[in-house]
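Hi W.,

Here's what went into the run:
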Amino acid sequence: LAKTTQPISMDSYEGQEVNITCSHNNIATNDYITWYQQFPSQGPRFIIQGYKTKVTNEVASLFIPADRKSSTLSLPRVSLSDTAVYYCLAVYGGATNKLIFGTGTLLAVQP
Amino acid sequence: DTGVSQDPRHKITKRGQNVTFRCDPISEHNRLYWYRQTLGQGPEFLTYFQNEAQLEKSRLLSDRFSAERPKGSFSTLEIQRTEQGDSAMYLCASSLGGNPYEQYFGPGTRLTVT
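Here's what came out:
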């Protein structure tokens, strides 16, 4: 059964690094893992995607181990404005209709 | 603003009525997706277009749901004979064909069925 799981919530303080992990067993071998950020009453916003090892852009890093059964989104030096729900998106079976978002992680950043 | 717009932003309807939502994607994006999101859950895939062709539909998309993208630009999602269980946020996203998972989402249409 395809399932993409994440911790329900995480707490952090401003300036800390935050790592959010997503589990996605049996994902398609040739598709990317993607992470999105969502604020209340808005659609998700693309953050980063990767296939394996490490990817870094101006806002985050993404770590994917060789077995690709999990991925970790790393947010350096979070601020209050990073308080949001973070979703990973994985593809199962190589088909678009097997696009499965994770359950979402609510990150609460405190001053 | 991602460049993807949806209309209306909110819709309240009575059970049994038909509703139609519109999505205008980023103009150069050839892929368009519809998702449904309920409170506390991640988006659930409904259907996907490449240009004007509807290529895949989720089993979540019952016979009461239909989507079109007649000229490969904007898309509509119609729900017939609405039920209370249809209450949700309906999200539209678009992407370039070369990178289908970097999707740009609209603000969503929140449907409330009373």
